[in-house]
Amino acid sequence: MRVLVVEDEALIRTDLGEALTAAGFLTESCRDGAEALFLGDTEDYDLVVLDLGLPSLDGLSILRQWRDHGRVMPVLVLTARGTWSERVAGIEAGADDYLPKPFHMEELVARARALVRRAAGHGSAIQTLGDLRLDGNQMRLTQQGRPLKLTALEYRLVVYLFHHRDRTVPVTELLEHLYGDDESRDVNAIEAVITRLRRKMGTGAIGNRRGFGYYLRGTAE
Q1: Burial of 123 (C-beta count, 10 Å sphere; 0-12/13-18/19+)
Q2: How many Cα atoms occupy the beta-carbon half-sphere of 179 within 13 Å?
Q3: Computed from CA positions of residues 66, 68, 71, 73, in that sequence, does the dihedral angle turn out positive or negative?
Q4: Cα–Cα nearest to 54, from 71, 76, 73, 35
Q5: pLDDT per residue over 83-99, tens digit each?
Q6: I want to staple 136 with a disulfide (CB 3.0 to 4.6 A). Which of 3, 61, 102, 125 is the partner?
Q7: What is the pLDDT of residues 110-159, one digit of tens each?
Q8: What is the pTM of this model?
Q9: Are 8 and 98 contacting, i.e. CB atoms less than 8 angstroms apart?
C-alpha cells in the first residue's frame, strides 16, 4: 500500500514515515502544499496523510482541489488546532478521517490501516481466502494455520492482492504501488517477487492472466 505523507515539520514527517513504513506501507513524503497538490493529482496513492498548515497552499485547499479533480484516495487530515469547526471544514472538504495533534503514532497507524481496508471494501483487519489468512494488524500471513515468513516487499504484494482480490491486477499497477517512483522498477522485479512467493505459498496461490496481470487464488496446490 502506497501512502503520501504531507507534513512541513521535518521531525513529524520523519516519524510518520518511519512508523508507516514499519507498518508495511510504501511511504513517500513532501512538505510543500503545491508539490502535494501535484503529486496527489498525478500519482496513485492508497492513502494520503495531510497536514493542514503547509507552505504555499493550505491542506484544505489541496483537499478540495483533489476532490474537484475526481481524486478519491482516502485522506487522513492532521491539524495542530483540532477545533470542532475545523473538523467540520475538513470533512466537508472531503477528508475521510481527522486526527488532531499531538497524537499517538499507534493510533495514526491503526486509522491508516482502517481507511485503506474500507476503501477496498473490507471492514475487518483479518481476511481469509482459500487456505490463506491475513491479519493486517499483526502483519501476519498464515497458510493452513502455518505462519509464512515474508520479506517486506513480499508482504506488501500479498496485501495489495488481498485488497484487490476481486480482479486481476496489472503488473504496472503492482509496480506503482510496491515501488512508487523508484526509477529502477521493472516488470522483471515483480516476476521475481511472485516467483519467491509461489515457492513459499505453493504454485497455485497466485494466478496469472498472461498479458493482464496477477490475482490471488489463495490455494497452495
Answers
A1: exposed
A2: 17
A3: positive
A4: 35
A5: 777 778 878 888 999 99
A6: 125
A7: 999 999 989 888 878 899 998 999 998 889 999 999 999 999 999 999 99
A8: 0.85
A9: no
